[in-house]
User: Fold this.
Amino acid sequence: MAEYYHVTDLEGLPVKTLAALVSGLPPYARVKQKYSGATIPDTIAMLALLIDSVNNIAWMLSEDGAKGRNHPESVYEKLTEPEKEKEIVSYMSGQDFENARNEILRRGGYI
Assistant:
């Protein structure tokens, strides 16, 4: 609410006014995501699904895909399933990411 309407004192607003303000928020507003049960914004979900599709195509064209083994993990599932959230890794720098990526590729894994 503060981001869009610059309102920080929600308790000071009448319920009807608060409901009207919330209904005017875009679908990616945090309060709407929370009440809809969304765990990630729609744009992030679409990008994760796109990454999954590209990874699946690359896998299907690989030797592993031809033999049906080592299917790539889903980025979308990692982002949307709570028990898999702890598997998400972040990096402090671009170099750290590149080092980890090169290690995965060296082992024959898929990104």
Notes: Residues 42-60 form the longest helix (19 residues). The chain has two domains: 2-36, 42-106. Residues 42-106 form one domain. The two ends are 37 Å apart (CA to CA).
